Amino acid sequence: MIRDITLGQYFPGNSPIHKIDARIKIIMTLILIVAVFLASSELSFALLLAVSVTVFLMSRISFKTLAKGLKPIVFILIFTTLFQIFFTRTGKLLFEWHFIRIYSNGIIYAVKMFIRIIVLISTTSVLLSYTTSPIVLTDGIEGLMRPLAKIKVPVHDFALIMSIALRFIPTLLEETEKIMSAQKARGTDFSTGSLMKRARSLLAVFVPLLASAVRHAFELADAMICRGYRGGEGRTKLNRMKMKFSDVVWLFLTGAVLAGVIILNAHPVFTLDAIFGI
Amino acid sequence: MDNIIEIKDLSFSYKDSEGKLHPALHNINLNFERGTYTAVLGHNGSGKSTLAKLINMVLTREDGEIEGSVTVCGKEVTGDISDEDAYNIQCRIGMVHQNPDNQIVATTVEEDIAFGPENLGVDPVEIRKTVTEMLKAVGMEGHEKSAPHRLSGGQKQRIAVAGVLAMHPECIIFDESTAMLDPEGREAIMRTIDELHRRGDVTIITITHYMNEATDADRVVVLNQGSVYMDGTPEQIFSQVEKLHSVSLDVPQVTELFWRLKKAGKYNGELPLHTNEGAEALASLLKVKRD
Q1: Touching check for B120 and chain A: CB below 8 Å?
Q2: Interface test with B, best of A14, A226, A235 (most B CBs within 10 A)
Q3: What are the chain A neighbours of B87 within 8 Å (beta carbons)?
Q4: Of A120, B1, B164, B233, whose CB has the highest number of CB atoms within 10 Å?
Q5: How many other CB atoms sit within 10 Å of the CB of residue B268?
Q6: Is the dihedral of CA B118, B186, B3, B48 positive or negative?
Q7: Contact at 8 Å (CB) between A108 and A273?
Q8: Is B229 helix (H, G, I), strand (E, B) or coil?
Q9: Domains along chain B with CATH numbers
Q10: Confidence of residue B181 (pLDDT cuts 50, 70, 90)
């Protein structure tokens, strides 16, 4: 039922990855993304692959879950890999059949691209979606943006908007279900007819839904005023995020990975070119 | 006598977008004594919610025409009032609304209860204590980390009550707080209200159209078409069955039963208000008959 929906793809757990401070996780993700795009030598790719496998194993997320998360990108993955194999025209010619020619560099680029995409998607989803609840993530973003409040960016307001949106998703979903049943009972047909016709029948859901969302907003505003809300100034917070020593270690390790990638790029010790003997 | 709320010669008319006036309250005079439990009864459109909104300053001169005055905690709220005074009074008068979903702000129960104290700038350690205490007060211990959308209507409403209690208000107004709940949820809220009343440090005003929710109050005020129609103890009010029927208001079922028995000449005691009193009266009635 709609009541049981999980927001995002968060899997509650107690692993070391779950315990990292959300702000640190966001920074770690950003550093790793930079590292993935900087990587060019074979060893730096090997390092990134090793890091993402380690993070994945430490998070104790099942392989099935990760595979499910990777499913939507399978097409892109296959397409870019094949594109690299068939359309790279540099390096040594390895194979020729009619118009198909495969060069050594094509294989190398394809493998690198494959690793790049896999590492990118799996580390961001393991670090952010699977092991961080949306609520904590919101707090993390707010925490990171806090310094911007000094230059009059309404950080508190953005954070409140996000958390109220998260809070009301299940409520509005429940309401959508109710309105759809009510409209079905009045003879609206959502599942047959042309695309236009179906879109038009959905209008019968959206209009009442919007009206009810507006009503929610007004009543919520009243309730918030009644509970003494008047903006972010002077507010305290029940759960303040506290940076732990282990969080600093994680940040340091991620920095080390980035440094490692840069160093390995500059000193290609072991390359695939060597294997193909160019 | 210490009145937390004093209403004097109050009339109110809503102003619609074209400037036309729609009268809602006529010449109301009511005082609410500190620490008491009052039930305000009436039909839809009798003006009971309007009254609550005027007390809590949700309705102001911008929304319509006000005559007379409402004084809360010694400050006249219907006149010119500074923003700071208005804010202080809103924090001292808590309000529980009808729809529990529209009162819950945060994504976890503990953070929602903490919302009020957070706004007041209370120290986090103190807030933590308050959250634990208030969850206990409404019988929802152990739900700190629950997501509001996974709770039942009654549970959500109890969280809303806890959120209001966390601000340590001097008065709580329950504006039709049970109307959207199932019987079980309604029962739980009524128990919570009784418990609060027993502790005695807070003034309670419930606004309802369920008659049997008014029987435990110290005082019942019946509004009809914007005026005070009756005012007295539950016993005084519900014994005047004909007077209530004449404005098509009911009395609690058990009272109705004994009123009919009385009219038929089968019973001549006091009209009971509670089911268990009724059961006892019925038992003794049957016993007399058998003897």
Answers
A1: yes
A2: A226
A3: 228, 230
A4: B164
A5: 7
A6: positive
A7: yes
A8: strand
A9: 33-62+76-234 (3.40.50.300), 252-291 (no CATH)
A10: confident
In chain A, residues with a C-beta closer than 8 Å to the C-beta of B104 are 167
Share of chain A residues as helix, strand and coil, in percent rounded to the nearest 5: 75, 5, 25
Retrieve residue B139's tokens: 């019988």
Contacts of B149 in chain A (CB under 8 A): 3, 167, 170-171, 174
Residue B288 corresponds to which tokens in the numbers above? 């007399």
Say how many CA atoms lie within 13 Å of B134 toward its Cβ.
Answer: 28
Q: Does A224 touch chain B (CB under 8 A)?
A: yes
Separation between Cα atoms, residue A2 and residue A142, nearest integer Å = 29
Which segments of A125-244 does DSSP mark as H helices, in order?
Answer: 134-145, 155-185, 195-226
Please state the pTM of the whole predicted model: 0.79
User: Which chain B residue is nearest to residue A169, measuring alpha carbons?
Assistant: B149
Residue numbers in B near A163 (CB within 8 A): 106-107
What is the DSSP annotation of A76-93?
HHHHHHHHHHHH---S-E
Identify the sign of the CA torsion B148, B154, B157, B161.
negative
Structural domain boundaries in chain A: 7-133+241-276
Whether residue A221 lies within 8 A of chain B, CB to CB, comes out as no
Q: Are B101 and B95 in contact (CB under 8 A)?
A: no
